[in-house]
Design brief:
Distance between the termini: 14 Å
CATH architecture: Roll
Helix content: 25-40%
Strand order of the largest sheet: 1-2-6-7-8-5
Strand content: 35-45%
Number of domains: 1
CATH superfamily: Hotdog Thioesterase
């Protein structure tokens, strides 16, 4: 079994969602933190100059926002389900709703439908409160 899968399982068993980030180097590189709130994982992306895609505004790079949304969806699946393998992304669609400003960004994923082989997850990212999302994603993930 790969080391990262063991790290994810161990973090889940200890109910330590922040330890899941250490198994995912990209999220660790971005400085993402994660906490649990009422069964949902909330990811926090701190602002850093390296994340700016449009220097004129400045605005967060769309790829960073998209990867944050896909990552929080996957983390929510791992946290919620008991699978022997990691979920694999089938596809995701992104809706950019507002400019991602140069400030801290939050994201949450919610499982909207789960079957035996496929799960659907909706993820949202916000900065000024969950009622004003900057982006949303709909993802389909293969289980097992």
């Amino acid at each position: 079994m790969p080391d990262y899968l063991e790290q994810l399982r161990d973090a889940k068993a200890r109910r330590a969602p922040q330890d899941m980030i250490r198994a995912i180097p990209y999220l660790d590189f971005l400085g993402v933190t994660v906490r649990e709130e009422e069964g949902d994982l909330i990811c926090v992306l701190p602002f850093q100059d390296k994340l700016v895609g449009n220097l004129t505004l400045p605005a967060l790079h769309g790829g960073v926002i998209g990867s944050l949304l896909e990552s929080v969806a996957l983390l929510q699946l791992i946290w919620t389900l008991d699978n022997a393998t990691l979920p694999r992304t089938i596809n995701t669609s992104l809706d950019f709703l507002r400019t991602g400003q140069a400030k801290e960004t939050y994201a949450r994923g919610r499982i909207t439908k789960q079957g035996r082989r496929v799960a659907n997850v909706r993820a949202e990212a916000w900065q000024d409160g969950p009622s004003r999302p900057i982006a949303a994603a709909h993802g389909h993930f293969l289980l097992g």
